[in-house]
TrEMBL record:
This is Transporter. The chain crosses the membrane at residues 20-41, 62-79, 99-128. It comes from the Bacteria. Keywords: Membrane, Transmembrane, Transmembrane helix.
């Protein structure tokens, strides 16, 4: 956990965090913002367009918001050097690899390639020795 400076409890600093950990935190937060924007677009579509089932559309919206929150929360936990956040972060990116693959195969080649690249980079950054050491994982 990051120690507070000057006796200020709860203040998070970037001092001492390796670049790999900072990079993966930024990636997680960018992913959270991207999924949140997608969730807002889907919520607008839910209420302005006809859906096959309204319940299904609401469930999709809620799932997107939950995923966005999870990405942001995992980034926050890693910022605070919580070692337990690394494995769920890797798992989320492994799951997203399949999404990127099917996006690319389904005709969204550029978007799928971006998702695949971000996932691979994030997984590599999460398992690098400097990140592992910074999180206190042996």
């Amino acid at each position: 956990m990051v120690e507070p400076e000057n006796g200020q409890v709860g203040r998070v600093t970037f001092k001492g965090l390796p670049a790999t950990l900072l990079a993966v935190i930024c990636l997680l937060w960018l992913e959270a913002v991207a999924v949140a924007v997608l969730a807002v677009v889907q919520i607008v579509n839910t209420f302005t367009q006809v859906a096959q089932t309204f319940t299904g559309a609401i469930a999709e919206d809620a799932l997107l918001l939950a995923i966005a929150g999870l990405f942001g929360w995992l980034g926050w936990l890693l910022l605070n050097r919580r070692a337990g956040a690394r494995n769920p972060s890797v798992a989320m990116h492994l799951l997203a690899l399949a999404i990127g693959y099917f996006m690319a195969k389904g005709g969204l080649v550029a978007a799928g390639a971006i998702v695949l690249a971000v996932c691979v980079v994030a997984i590599v950054l999460l398992v690098l020795p400097s990140t592992t050491r910074a999180l206190g994982i042996k």
